Amino acid sequence: MTFDPVHACVLAFQGLYPVDQAGSTALEQLGRVQAMVRGETIQPAGQPCRTLYFVAEGSVRIHSMPDGHDVTERIVLAGGFAARGESLFDQSTVDKGIECLEDGVLVALPTSALFAAFEAHRPLERAFYKMVERDYVRQIKRLERIQTLSPAERYARLLDEEPELLQHVPLKHLASYLGITPESLSRIRARRT
Amino acid sequence: MTFDPVHACVLAFQGLYPVDQAGSTALEQLGRVQAMVRGETIQPAGQPCRTLYFVAEGSVRIHSMPDGHDVTERIVLAGGFAARGESLFDQSTVDKGIECLEDGVLVALPTSALFAAFEAHRPLERAFYKMVERDYVRQIKRLERIQTLSPAERYARLLDEEPELLQHVPLKHLASYLGITPESLSRIRARRT
DNA sequence: CGAGGCCTTGACCGCGGTCAATGCCCGTGG
DNA sequence: CCACGGGCATTGACCGCGGTCAAGGCCTCG
Fold first, then answer.
1. Distance of CA A94 to the CA centre of its chain
2. What is the CATH number of the domain that holds A85?
3. pTM for the full model?
């Protein structure tokens, strides 16, 4: 085999916290590999979030549709994890969907089984919460930027801190990710001679 | 005794996850009670966050000062916890301070000792991560609002979802909390006949 | 070769930012 | 007890950015 998605997922966990052998194999047995094609809806809006996804190849975005406008809330490139945090822990329903941006493959981890595995494998639980921590900090920084910076400055920051996104994501999604319209983003780009 | 701040803090933990007797007493021994007066700086900017605060009475805000402008990032009323999440886990320095908004009393929990107690008291660790979870979800929702709503709509939401803030926090801080200037907030308020 | 999606450009408008002045309430000190 | 001062909220005038609506060009895919 050339590339094992599940193994990559286990490695990603181990990169967060040293997971022991038993925890790793438990995790490995949970993972379900699943292919995705561009435009496909991985998880539709209106359902509780019962699955944590590891993006082995390709990319996805999480988005909502308040009053008919498509707003992308976050973008996950290969190597990252995707889930709708508001719903992850309490299984509340959430009006957000997960959509595939580029063909690729996912590893799906059912949260019920994952959380159950925490009882027997504390390092696994620790790794998971490291993931939440990391994401929590990212949310704080993103909020800080959107709260204090102008649209033009936010775009400049994006170029500076996550330029890879430009290679993978159409501008209209980056626009709503920045909290502005596609037209504004276009003008901002034109303005920076 | 009429009111024990440390005990209130322990109860707050137990409200998040059932902490056993041993964990509760361990927590109780960590807490340091400390009074605060309005305007006082609890934690100055530029330091790593080594303390988790429980606000027993009064209220505080977390704020930063990018290019000289005071931006309040979050407001914690009595019964809540306050810490600068970006720095909590990795002890990185952070340009944010904690300031007292109303006279009151805090319970200070040194993070090093708290994290150390997790090794022996798993329920305590669980309760703490429930706290992080809850806060994580709040960040997501706040980001969502600021990303998709206009300033006027954000103020309407604030009135709707956390009207208590108006009783405790001066408008200039609410303005920066909403990501707008005090003048704009004033006009928005005037506009809603 | 045609159709549709995406990015761009244009014109117009209104909201919110900025700077400045006024009024109000409070605590402080004479 | 009153006078003063400072911080906070408000109001006004002005301007520019970003939102909205509409049209045009380009690429990709069927």
1. 15
2. 2.60.120.10
3. 0.93
